[in-house]
Fold each of these.
Amino acid sequence: MPQSPEEVVPDHGADARLRRTMTLQQVLFLAISGQIGSGWLFATLYAAGAAGPAAIISWLLGGALIVVMALAWMEIGAALPRSGAIVRYPYLTHGGLTGWLMGFSYWIANVSLPAIEAIAVITYMGSAFPSLDMMTTKDGVAVLAWPGGILAGLALMVFFYLINAFGVRLLSETNRWVTWWKILVPVTTFVLLLFVFNSDNYTDYGFFSQGGGSVFSAVATAGIAFTMTSFRGVLDFSGEVSNPKRTIPLGTIGCILIPLAIYMALQVAFIGAINWGDAGIKAGDWGALNGSNWGEGPLKHALEASSMAALGAFATVLLMDAIISPGAAGYVFLGATARVGFGLSIHGYFPRVFQKTNKHGIPWVSMVFSFLVGCLFFAPAPSWSRLAGFISAAIVLSTLMGAVCLPVLRKYAPALPRPFTLRAPGFWCPAGFLASAAIVYWSGYTTLVNLTVLIFAALAVYGAHYLPYRGWITHRTGVTLSAVYLAAWIYVSDKGGWFLATGDSPAPGSWPFPVYCTVSSVLVAAYCAGLWLLSGEQGRLHTSRGFWLVFLLLATLPLSYVGEFGPQEYMSFPVGTLLEMGVSLIAYYWGVASGFATDELPETVAQEVARVAEEKAAEKPLAAGAV
């Protein structure tokens, strides 16, 4: 049976139990620590393999797109500093369905991030010490071996948990010194690689040797978006910063530009330092870099290939950093994921117990659950390269909401204090939305179909749990309809043959793509229509205001299949990208028009107005005493 109204009102007061103690430097370093994690160890190799020397342009393009994506979040984050912020704003402006789909996309990406950082540590260590038997090869990809590699990864996950369990102060203080190390080592690596720089790698094999489209696809698939989207860490911890009006905007832009400069320098130096013979591949065969001898430790191998003793010696330091950098990012990501689960619980998507905090002010139940689910990503054959593209697409998909939420908040929450106000939102908001949609599209069909299968499977949770939880549909109706839908969705996804596929071909005996695409789209549309018809007035409102997002996902999938990054490639670059931009613009304006003042929005605004007033009142006596 649905719970009583007093039981289902979101507990916005839970934010007061978190401690606002983090300074600008602390939150900036937390975000930078996420940016300079496993990505800096592998992204330069994968970017070069995808785009050749033009990977430099891919980094510039990726950095520019991420900045545009972040602009709307800077205003929203400063105005509504909330832990787990990215999963909470969509609910406030668009209701239950949008909030759940975006929240799940962001949560599933975040919960896998500590695992991928642990995988990166073990991968580097396994290449340096093969006798430990921590790595093996499956389908031409380096994966963690059982038992040595997987057990070592699980041990790292336990370490990440312990760092977080003792409070945000320990987390931020521990991370401060680690982040200085994580900045110093990449910069030093860049300088040392210049001693073996070979300009022929830029001139002899063609700057755009992999094609113009590869410059764009590398942003999504080579780890560039994976590394640069960690600006969201500022927002995930925003409920615990001491001065949000200054900390959030400065922290957001700073944690993008500083790592971008480091990555750009590394990419320039790494391309020039490639020793084709040592890598074991033909000179100029950029696409073979990923599977080369350098695949498990590219920067370390680049230094060791030199005849200079000093460079080889620094490779040992680099090996130490292969433990420290991903390890530090891993415990930051676990802490951020706990805040995401906390935010989802506020609006009823996760049980209320996820809001429980320990004596250190940490949402410990959410963190324990995130830790346990994250450990599942070590089965059956964990690999950095296989996870990076999926995580990037899921994160970027959820971050497109900032551009849609901002104009809705401007309209329905004019009294909200705005320490930072974005100028020309009529231009920057759709631009940010298109930037996010483009990166998601460039992820490629195989990544998108896996992400879509998971998101639309999670749609059943909305009908079976959330709508009955809020009393907007009977429990029996919601569970029955959702169970039928989920069973049908699993069957259709299996017959489609693309779920968990890693190549450009479906499983043998699968449906032709037109059949799979049509049946899956009709199934999702029928389920959404059923929820709308069988729900009460509020259920219909919250469900219908998320249809624009369902449209975007369903329309993107066939475009991706026939586009320049799909298995068929009926359209050459940039035709498919331009068509996707057209679809995205329709979705953007539909999404803005779908925004409304949810019941919780006035209360949230009132709490923020009161909090700002209290801070100003507390500042006045201090100022008077100073005089």
Note: The first strand starts at residue 135 and ends at 138.
Amino acid sequence: MKAPVSWIKEYVDLPASVTTEVLTDRLTALGLKLEAIETAGAGITGPLVIGRVLTQEKEPQKNGKVINWCTVDVGDANGTGEPQGIVCGAHNFGVGDKVVVVLPGGVLPGGFAISARKTYGHVSSGMICSAAELGLGDDPSTGSGQAHGILVVPADGPEPGTDARDFLGFGEEVIEFEINPDRAYALSLRGIAREVALGFSGAAFTDPADRAVPVVDGAGYPVEVQDPAGCPVFGTRVVTGFDPTRTSPAWMVKRLEQAGMRSISLAVDISNYVMLELGQPNHCYDRAKLDGPIVVRRAQAGEKITTLDDVVRELHPEDLLITDGSGPIGLAGVMGGASTEISESTTDIVVEAAHFEPTGIFRTQRRHKLGSEASKRFERGVDPLLPGVAADRVVELLVELGGATAAAGFTLVGEAPVRPAITIDPSLPARISGIDVPVEQTVRLLRAIGSDVVEVPSTGSGQAAISVTAPSWRPDVNEPHDLVEEVVRVVGYDQVPSVLPRRATGRGLTREQRLRRRIGRTLAGNGLVEVVSFPFVGDAAWEALGLSVDDPRRNAVKLANPLSNEAPAYTTTVLPGLLEAAGRNLGRGASGVALFETQTVARPADGAAPIYGVDRRPTEAELDALLAAVPTQWNELGVVLAGEYERGGWWGPARAAGWDDALAVVARLTRELGVEVAVESAAAMPWHPGRCARISAGEVTLGFAGELHPNVCRAYGLPARSAAVVLDADALIRLTPEVTPGPVFSTMPLAKEDVALLVDDSVTVGAVEAALREGAGELLESVRLFDVYTSEQLGEGKKSLAFALRFRASDRTLTAEETAAARDAAVARAAAVTGAVQRA
């Protein structure tokens, strides 16, 4: 939404000290986020003047293009007073029109310098400008169907030779806001100005909708509303004697262009101007083209309409229409029909202003891909009290600017929906936000946003509460916490105190979470890359995997609202997405892939889930029935190895992945987890029947690994003999033994002792080592055999075993006496058990 600052200040008496930057900062804090601040005419230098077209000669060119050779009166701006010769390729202007001309020496936005140059056989001394070329923008969705072209200045605009900058509003600042969907009231100058007055509490606000509306007497143009739910309010006024030759005044054209819209014709411009001013879309019909009363109804089978953009649209039964005796004449709240469009001969006009239910308008514009300025407002929620006000304002401008006469009578069918009162504890904003907001301030701020506030006795504690009726233009305010948000945003979110979060009291990751991370780290450490794919499949995936029609994996959970009709089910195996990822990477030039993924898979439960009411809590039996209908889910681990597994180079040729690499991955993973598995030959799709292995632990089948079937490789674009692994990750985690605590390491110095023991050949090293450990006691840290010696000097049937004994205490440095005693005790125990004799 673009809002000229000068237009805002017409409704809000802001102090002179409030700059545009201060204004936008405050509005951003209130929720109207600043998108940009534009200064019209920035980047334009040199002579830019008003001109009048004196002559216009059309000259066809060899390339099929037709140019206009024009002479333009620019007054004395060119220094000679003579007409300026200019070549122009646009055709939406004629002799006598006033236009904007940039003379040689001028520079347009983007650094486009203008000079006198020869083109199409003429010397073109300047340029006749369009709105886009002047940086004023251009609105392609005005609904007129008129092509873009030269900016034509109204007849009452400045005289030729006058500097065009003041007329164009150059130098004025225009604020562009990003409007949230729940703030439809801010898609108008009325709404933005109200927010400005709210943000600067001392600024007086003049509501442009505060006007006397004629008494509703039903004597306006007749209306019948057959769908009051879709159209709660519909109003009409009639004007006669409108002069279709009159053009829009310069001030209105300027305002529209500053707001990002393009001037079309006086009647259309008035309609758009009132929409920007009040936020209420409206529409003007040529009364002479209407056939009987206006009827608001839903579309019927086979009906069509030609909208203002000259497109024939087939209608849907849910489309809300504006119709007359001839059929549809407008898509309600979206766009009017071409059959009743205002034309150059229109003299009598029916002005319509209505209120439509937002959801229906949203669905209609999405269905027909026909977004418009009107639908943008209606689908967000427009003030239902505005139709009468907007219709009266349009009539006023048609009378004032178009010479029309307001016909007697005002038809207004229906009533605006009544806003329910909201009871709230006035201390709630302070309790929720942590800001010190007194009750009096809460009441004052709620009234400032337009709410009616009444004090009512509170039930229970006896503490006073307040009853708040939100304003008609705020359909987003419906419960106490919406009111809290309103109070806090005005006080300022920057006033909310900062509170550090308390330290989490949990115990960290669960055992399952730790083991899932260990699985990922193990696979990544062995060169595999983790991927994440969509878990949605269709029949094409089962065909690609070669699953038989009775394979239980084909029995998948169907989704009520799938992302794609080609993949309407939740997968029962991790393989489809993983194989697609592998094929996609190989197809884009990868020489080989080693991928893994852990994904939730599901199988449908028996029977459909029961549907209970929401008026009570389900019984325990009902909850059990609900849980029984929840699909069975578990985590499945998948691995795909395809293409080069080991790269080639000067050290040797490359090696492709094979079934043995898949089994090696399983071996490394199960060894890391401490799970003992058995591997046996099996036959299961999508694996090659002769190169598939079942992975099991006891009676539990964990999954399969091996070479993929050749048909599967072709279906997914993988090289022959690609391999895959599928394991039940949850079962693997359940079988993983608990990790026992490791040894506690001491930081005290190590004491070293070596002993050589003479024993019989029949005595084993293990027996001697066990005896040494037993005798040394708790101070012994390790025993290591470092030498075995035999010789004739030792005697027949004897051998010498040399052991390195290492002693350490956890709390002190061992003395020489303690170390010697522990060594001697170890030797003594070895002598007693094995007959060992210590060598000198």
Note: Residues 139-147 have pLDDT under 50 and may be disordered.
